[in-house]
Design goal:
ATP-binding; globular; 6-stranded mixed beta sheet; 6-stranded mixed barrel; 37 strands; alpha/beta; about 1250 residues; 44 helices
Amino acid sequence: MAGLLQGLDASFEPAPLPAKSRPSPFPSRHHVSNAEAGPSTPGTTSKLIDLTNKASTSSSYQTPKKQRIGNTTLQSENGGPVADVDMDELLAGAEDWDFDDWVPSPKKPSPKKRSSVIPAQPTAKPRAGAEAKAFVPDPYTRCVVDAVGEQLDVRSGKDLKHQQVIYLQNDWYDTDVRPGDIVNAVGPFEHTSSAKPSIKITSQSNLLILHPDILLTATALSNAPQCARKPLLSSLVRASNDISPALVWGNMLHEVMQNCLSEKRWEEEWINEQIEEVLLNGLGMLLALNVSIVTARTELRKRAIGLQIFKERYISDVPKPDAILSDTRARSSDSAALLAIPQLHEIEEDIWSPKYGLKGKVDATVEAVIAETPPASSSPSIPAITSGPRPFEIKTGRSLAGLEHRAQTMLYTLLASERYGTDVPDGLLYYTQSDTVVRVPRSRNEIRGLIVARNALAGYMIKRVGREGEFNRKRNKDEEERKDIEEIGMGAETFLPPPIDDEHACKRCYTVDTCMLYRYAYSAKTSETKLPMLESPPTASNAPESLVNTYDLKTGHLTPEQGLFFRKWETLLSLEERDLVRFRRELWTIGAGDREKKGRCFAGMVVKPLTGVEQDAEKDEKNAAGSSPAGEGRVYKFSYTFVRSVKWAPSSQGGSSESDQRNLLNGHLNVGDPITVSVEPHLLAFAQGFITDLTPVAVKLGIDHKVDLEWIRARMRKDDPQFVAGEVVFRIDKDELFGGMGRMRNNLAQLFYANGDRKRLELVVDLRKPLFSPSIPPESLAIESSSSQHVKNLNLSQKEAVSKVLSAEDYALVLGMPGTGKTTVISALIKILVAQGKTVLLTSYTHSAVDTILRKLDDEADDKSGAGLAFGVLRLGNLEKIHPDVRKYTLSAKRKAETVEQLEAQWMGPPVVAATCLSVKNPLARRGGLEVSLFRRLSDAHPDSVVDLREQYRMNEDIMALSNKLIYSDRLKCGSAEVANRKLVLPNAPGKGDLTWLDASHRRQRALEKNCWLAHLASPETTAVFVDTDSLGPGVAHDSRVGDLVQNEVEAELVVQLVEALVGKWGLKKKDVGVISLYRQQVKLIKSLLLAGKSTGRAVEEEGEEVEVLTADKSQGRDKECVVVSMVRSNDHGQVGELVKDWRRMNVSFTRARSKLVIFGSRKTLKSDPLLAQFFELMEGRGWVYELPIGAHVVHKQDLERDEENVGVEEDDVCVVDEVVEGVRPVVEDQILKKAAGVLKGRPILQDLVSSES
């Protein structure tokens, strides 16, 4: 590695600035602006910012051009183009210029060489008379490796049928390539008639990118030459406490300078204003440093002094004489180069490159004008001028052009070339403390060395994230039943590079604790384990003595069993992480249309133009929110609404109708989800953000970058000169955030560090028995001053639970079965603990469960005094997912802190902090034990630490019987006879009054009232019932797929009709009805049907009174008088899916109901599962299964969609089949029509019931 990167030495010293200033030989260029633009609309104004305070430039990116004088082309040594300047004015007085007096750059060992793989080519069409040369990027081919030997046999193409050969030579030869791996061959394949197309990857030409779907950051890769282990460890374990003053000052100064560039303002007063704003936004970092805002202000103002110098020296149309550009590869004979920065392209630009397997966030991308004089021997001595976009990195440290900085900047030139469609031969480093700008040329040798290093890191990372073949391989039964999760695909190979064991470097490394922990955990062995040792501890024979001592200091307190515990759970987290990697790479490996079929993308989207009224509303929202209309905690710079392009053609495959495919609710994407915005094929993830609103026809995004339509069109013309300006079509993809797994690893690691949480290490890992002090008798709680007022309404088992918790010195476990008052007990405990001066962390897997308890606290406080809670609460989380009633406890609802002390009071003052924890999705991770809750681990180890709540006050005895028989072995009891006999009596029940809408419906339909399914389900005597949809007819109520999501349209229609009847016709309050399904797509479908309805559609939108439609997880903590459950799965193959087999979720769904539980589903399909067979045995034994009459889903449909006043009783007011179907909502119209026709065909009696008589 050292040989590959030998050119990246750290010996660079910048050229000194000129001792005196002299008039610039470059007169200011005349700037001609475009014609005045029309009214501004979102996405139409260019993001290219003229920094020189002159009239704005063209709205699209102007490709740099070569200038010619006579037959002479002015260009740089590398063939780059000159700036677009007035040459007559530029050369005026050239005979008087004194080039010999310019200060040269320092000597370097060798002249810079140009790469054959990354050529510096002209980037645009020259002026008249010049030869036009367009930038042509290096081609690359994505391949799958079939065989590895003296050559790589690969396949490529969409169908992987093109057989090719790759020869690895020189330093590429040792690349760890294996059969099945994905590689990118960067460079052209040679085609011959007698052999397979081939390419040679050598030290002089072409590149090989191993595992290109692993996008390594340029920052991480720049650290790899010193220690390849450090960047991988820092990505695995994301510590939240690695904050230093230098890091904080650097981040803040970055933001100040970026604001200066964006706003084109550099005066001292304005810079100070920006410092104040940055300080206010960064109070959290100051709090972590324990630094006052006064100290921080002084430090930042001192560091920002050079910003005005930078502006005066470098912000200009043409280079000024003192605008020295130092060069890391200049020779002593070279004259100094000069730099001007006239324009800004973008700030904090995220660029992903699956071509090179890289990604990076560039501080700024600027338009640079560089003037260089040829060597003294050249004639004539006319300066060569180049211009074009350049990555601009802001460095606030003292070191100049160190190895890490230069490596990072070189990699950014590759990314910028892809983003801007032009050659970017070098990048710029600006050092704020020395007011120096350093030019970092890109060279073939250095890029080759960095890519080889990248491949080495990717080779280690792939062992953790999983190779391509492992995702789709079906494991046999023996593998699935193995107890040790590492034996079925993880842990067989080391996944970290070997440690460097360098005394000086390791001592100062910020990952030393993590590094030593991994070395211990993956080398620990016991007599029972057979796992291979993947790491080795430092010993006196292979490491300095000081490192051996450091290892003992960091790990000497751990036991082998503790090390193996960390290894197991860290491995399980990696399994969970695999899905995130697999989903993210779909952004560039799967087209938008195909990914939309999987439910993880919106294809064919265009920006919706805003009317003037809408624009005003946007401004009002921003002003009200204080930052952006997107909401809490997240500051979105821009907000856009996207709709389907009218030109977008839905897929003809898959069986879904066009209306289904156009409906944006059909998929995995939901409000609050992270997303990326792309334009295929080259603008990948150019903007990132979150969904802030979602309807069937539009999606609103809060994103971090401007959607500049004119710039995008100009960029598309670079790839396709024939491109005609028109609408720009976007794809919006669901993104996967990796930070969560890194934080979870950090939380896990904190238990094992030498200065970590020793107490919880003993309790959670070693399972030490918890200690209890003498408990307070339950009857004495009413006497205690801190608890008396909070326990007076609790029953005996609830008081016992409170007593157990208050006597715990370590932990106590309260097992609350459904309806037993867990929320009530937790609420009482919170108030008692706060009264005792303790602090409380309230957490759950779901936002719903957390918010239910906070709302309970609110309700009890309001009932007592009306003044609200007597103590502070801090609710953390995504505002879009927090219940509106408790958003008042979020930071966004509080007055913005203006001092560190105020922020500390907001963060640390509230004694109660409420947040959610993460759930588990990966099946292997679940099977390995990652889904085992801490509650279960502790309760299984120490049952005596558990206290039960047995008396429930929610469900009547029929509903309670389901959980009691199937799960709780009859331990659950009704708290009173009133609860046991509870029934739902509707205000306007069927049969009340002279003639109801249902009677009129029966007359029109010629239906038999005694066989009416709605009347049966509405009866007070029907308390728990399974509604069998099989009886509707073969295939009528089968489930269907939207991509890889499952829904059941007929079942959804039945659910909606029942809800509409209960609420719209029979007077049940909306807040007393809940709909639950295990499938998110079914939840979306039912919501869309309710929104389209006339009786209850508005209820979904009304604040404070809703017909809630929830997943099982989100229904936790809720209870309703009537709950309707949609089971969804209905098919001829008996496929019930994993979700239906999850009895935890099933139990939650069934136990939300107080008086009536209605379950819709296919008995034939669901009964095929052994656990569900027990459920049906109980339901059938009690007579609680109801078979729907044929055509039930269409009989009452039109009546429920009518306004009540229009319901009549005339004999001729009857409906025909066409009219019945016509009313079906757009989402399911085509499918219902086909199924209804199929049911009625060949059934004359049914046709008489639902058709008109001639």
